[in-house]
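Hallway conversation turned thread

IA: we were arguing at lunch whether anyone had actually written out Thiol reductant ABC exporter subunit CydC end to end. Turns out nobody had. So, for the record, here is the sequence (550 residues) and right after it the structure tokens. Reply here if something looks off.
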Amino acid sequence: MRTRFLVAVLAGAGASAAAVGLMATSAFLISRAALHPPVLHLMVAIVAVRAFGIGRGVLRYAERLTGHDAALRALGRTRIRIFTHLANVAPAGLAGFRRADLAQRLADDVDAVLDLLTRVVLPYAVALVVGAASVLLVGSLSAPAGFTLAFGLLVVGVGVPLLQSRAARRADGRLAPLRADLATATADLLHGLPDLIAYGAVDARLAELSATGAALRTAERRSSVMAGVAAAATAVATGLSLLVGLAAGAVAVRGGVLRGELLAVVVLTPLAVFETVGGLPAAAQRLAACRASVRRLREVLAARSPVVTPASPAPLPAGPHTLRLENVSAAWLPGRTVLHDVSLTLAPGDRVALTGPSGSGKSTVAALLVRFLDPAGGRATLDGVDLRSFTPEQVRRIVGYLPEDAHLFDTTIAANLRIARPDATDDELRSALASARLLNWVDTLPDGVETLVGEHGLALSGGQRRRLALARALLADFEILILDEPTEHLDDDTAAALTHDLLSAAGHRTVLLITHRPGIATLVDCAVTLGPTDPEPVKPHSVPRATADA
């Protein structure tokens, strides 16, 4: 990547140098031709004009090709690095980020890496090379004109950006956070629109959204003002270089120090030079926004994984497996413990219900067992071996987690199932659907398993979405299943029927059923209640265990 970027810098410098050379040579050729010399005396200049004209286009194409290739490779590596990091720290490690804000960081802020290379670093590198060469060229013909050109380049390339950075730091530095706030507020408005309408709170949210948009427009307006100031400074510096070059060159020609046909070179060369460096103030202004975006990406990369991966993981013990929590405490955010001294045992084939009020830590227990989170105190074990001795991937080969909001992708039923096992055959898909009591319904659909489920599964009912998510978990063939609030938003009778079907579909597997419905406890072997104190196991019921044939 560095080699490609170096080639881009050299090609860009060559293209800009060709533009300057084209201007200088053309000025010389026109001035020289006005003296009516023999044509042969003009051949070198004519060939040079053709070479510079063709070379400028070829080299500019090479700069765009290699520069964007290098930048896109850097962008790809950045995306891979960030997504790999997110896969390692999610979900517990991202508890401090808002979803819409995180999406904004992964989109616009990551794209800032491309802008940083192509719109900031590359223009400055090219301008440095071409500007120095042009100052030497003009200075060799007229020292005052060379000094003036150097001064103008410093003003445009260094002075104006420094003033911009001080005046526009607050404006450009706020653009990325304000865009993130706007994206978050928009997402909240769209997702919560039914509730907002029901409570008559739409106008208040729209007012907040409008205020954020107004703040964003103000920041963009300040940024645009500085861009106008930079353009004016560039025009003034260009005009000053022309006037000084004309005056100094005329004096030199009259004094016999400078040949007359070279006066046009001294006067017109700055036009091409400032065309190259004229974009530096905009590049410097873009740098402020890029720095804000890079800072936000660093915040994501600084998120620490809540799970420690061992350098030499222990081999998984042979089944059947027993999963146990021993006096465990846990926290999603530092200093905010949500689970205190919880003990729980899942022996092979057990059906256990975990109940308790909202906020008692039921989902945190699931996160501990599937190694989304490590205990802050106590320990979690698999067959007596601390879970931290295994990698999270090892644990998740055995323990499957079906969250309350299990995501369905906007694709077909078959594609959603094959997320669990990409090589699954159609017969295996149908078997999983049958176990989840969905096959009869799927067979009534015109497209069968190729039916689209819609965004977030909106084409399905709530019960069908949960059954499809369960079928996906069954297809993965986990030995231990954790079902987190599978009957949420259902009435009691429907919830009881769905729970019976879920437990039946689980067959011989160990099942931990997380629910806030105490009545569900009658369908399992044992119920554990979480509360402000230690969990209290409820006496096992004499209800027969649901089997796969039930």
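OS: looked through it. The first strand starts at residue 323 and ends at 333.
IA: good, adding that to the notes. The two ends are 61 Å apart (CA to CA).
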